[in-house]
Design goal:
The chain is of the alpha/beta class. The chain is built from 16 helices and 21 strands. The protein has helices at about 1-15, 20-30, 35-45, 60-75, 190-200, 210-215, 220-225, 250-260, 265-270, 340-360, 385-390, 425-435, 460, 485-495, 510-530, 545-550, and strands at about 80, 90-100, 105-110, 110-115, 120-125, 130-140, 145, 150-155, 165-170, 205-210, 230, 245-250, 280-305, 315-320, 330-335, 335-340, 370-375, 400-405, 415-420, 440-445, 470. The strands form three sheets. It has a 17-stranded mixed β-sheet that branches.
Length: about 550
């Protein structure tokens, strides 16, 4: 008995004499350990089950998702994230389904190419009209980029009003690393930018040529993402500012098209890499006719909050984000029509629930408030987060950071962790130190050419000025061959990404996901408790917006 009293006295003395930070650290670790692989998997199984029908916006799957996630946030001790006392933010959307009446026809003289829907092209209109028709001249505009800072303008030299534009995917892959980010894709390479460019030029239509490498995904992803019901915002101008017809065509069809025009696809791509490139009239006529089914719908961002403990700092917000939606029910692949979205992004939603549980167990909550934001319609063009960025529930100048998760590691522990967009903000410093305490290292995105920083919800907070961190899985898996992580990334992209086969797999190992979530826990806690707030690095594209705001 005396032995245990002696030990207790020693432990008590150590705690009394230890620095407050050490005691706090012990508590932090204990709470982070509340993140549990078994519970995480149970959440994922539920959200990615056939019952939830692929979690499409404005569907039975949305209703089930909102109900389940809200119940879990309540159980974790969260309060409603909307100041109106609810766990949701209503997002007004327009649903549209563009159905071509026949093929997309390209003709020159007596020669004709008939492109087949889904196999060769996809096309749609975001305008609220029940019919859309194209009949115009085709013009190749290279990458469709207007970048004054690089003295680059692909649209200069021809009046493009009423023309139908064809563009290359990604941005110009130039050898000069100072131009267009070198290997990394910039926003100039993203498909939304290209359609915006076509609209600004007054074009009647715009088609992006798909290539799996530069796009970052195979044609099946394009077909599955745009082949059925889609969603958009209906702007005050009734979407008249959008390009009348938008779409994609496959590389084989592009090769036929350029051959008809009297050149080759490879020669056209080579010409587009020259700074003096000018739009090229292809001498071809494009015809396309389609009906368009539209309806006004409402979807919901899910929002939950943990109130901060500091009387002053609790009015500032750290936002955690992970989109809840996926593609719903679509075209059958091997007999399966439900696009379950297990990795993308049931894992991210489950991770948010586990983070909320861990923070909720803390006796003294973080100083700043935490907002768990689960946007809708990410798969339809980051719509839910775009709506939040323009209609924030809390002032942006008091939103100190965003930490985003889009697909957790389901393959085991890694020596590293990825920061997509590494070098953009001081959040990197917090991440590097938190990873160091785990015995891990931080690496930049191994696939910057995919432009992932512009493809997930944090982008819509970044572009309104909020410093945003996008964490991805590491690729150095413990006890695995050196190329294991890279090969598994490629396999997922080609076999499961945006396909019905993105389901819970029997070989999943969530120990890596747990470790990554514990890392996020520590990063969030550091940001929530440190007096100084994160900032964009000097020269970053989003810094000016933040500086003006602050």
């Amino acid at each position: 008995m005396l032995k245990w009293v002696f030990v207790a006295v020693i432990i008590f003395s150590v705690l009394i004499l230890a620095p407050a930070s050490a005691i706090a650290a012990a508590g932090i670790d204990r709470n982070a350990r509340a993140i549990d692989a078994r519970t995480l998997l149970a959440h994922i199984r539920k959200l990615a089950s056939d019952e939830f029908e692929g979690r499409s916006p404005s569907s039975k799957g949305e209703a089930l998702t909102v109900q389940y996630v809200t119940e879990q946030f309540r159980a974790a001790g969260c309060t409603p994230g909307n100041p109106d006392g609810t766990f949701v933010q209503t997002v007004p959307l327009m649903s549209y389904r563009t159905q071509p009446a026949g093929p997309l026809t390209v003709s020159r003289g007596d020669r004709t190419i008939d492109m087949k829907l889904a196999d060769d092209f996809v096309a749609w209109t975001r305008r609220p009209s029940d019919r859309v028709a194209l009949d115009g001249d085709l013009v190749f505009v290279g990458y469709g980029v207007t970048a004054p800072e690089f003295n680059w303008n692909d649209l200069d030299g021809m009046d493009l009003k009423g023309k139908i534009l064809v563009m290359l995917v990604n941005d110009p892959p130039l050898p000069d690393e100072k131009l267009f980010g070198g290997r990394a894709m910039t926003y100039y390479g993203r498909w939304p930018y290209k359609f915006e460019q076509a609209a600004r030029a007054g074009a009647a239509g715009c088609f992006v040529i798909h290539e799996s490498g530069p796009a970052g995904y195979p044609w099946e992803v394009v077909k599955n993402s745009w082949g059925g019901e889609s969603f958009t915002f209906l702007g005050p101008d009734n979407n008249e500012s959008t390009c009348p017809v938008e779409g994609w065509i496959t590389t084989p069809q592009a090769e036929l098209l350029f051959a008809m025009a009297g050149t080759t696809y490879s020669d056209a791509k080579a010409a587009a890499l020259k700074a003096d490139f000018a739009p090229m009239a292809l001498g071809c006529r494009v015809k396309f006719d389609a009906t368009n089914s539209i309806r006004r719908v409402e979807s919901r961002n899910i929002v939950a909050k943990i109130e901060g403990s500091d009387a002053r700092l609790k009015n500032e917000i750290v936002v955690f984000s992970a989109h809840w939606d996926h593609l719903g029910v679509g075209a059958a692949v091997d007999g399966d029509t439900i696009y379950n979205g297990a990795v993308d992004n049931a894992t991210g939603v489950a991770g948010m629930l586990e983070l909320a549980k861990a923070y909720g167990k803390m006796g003294r909550k973080p100083k700043r408030s935490l907002l768990f934001l689960l946007p809708t319609a990410e798969e339809r063009g980051l719509l839910g987060s775009a709506y939040y960025g323009e209609n924030p529930l809390y002032p942006l100048e008091r939103t100190v950071a965003n930490i985003n998760m889009d697909g957790l590691n389901v393959l085991g522990r890694t020596k590293d962790v990825t920061v997509v967009g590494f070098g953009k903000s001081t959040l990197d410093d917090v991440t590097v130190e938190a990873a160091r305490q785990q015995g891990r290292i931080v690496k930049p995105d191994p696939e910057p050419e995919k432009g992932s920083y512009y493809r997930s919800d944090h982008f819509n907070l970044a572009k309104v000025g909020v410093p945003a961190l996008y964490l991805g899985s590491g690729i150095e898996f413990i006890g695995k061959p050196a190329d294991f992580g890279t090969q598994k990334r490629k396999e997922y992209t080609s076999v499961r990404y945006h396909k019905p086969s993105d389901e819970v797999q029997p070989d999943w190992d969530l120990s890596g996901a747990v470790e990554d979530l514990q890392l996020v826990f520590h990063i969030g806690l550091q940001v929530a408790n440190t007096p100084a707030i994160p900032t964009w690095r000097e020269g970053d594209e989003f810094k000016a917006r933040r500086d003006a705001m602050m």
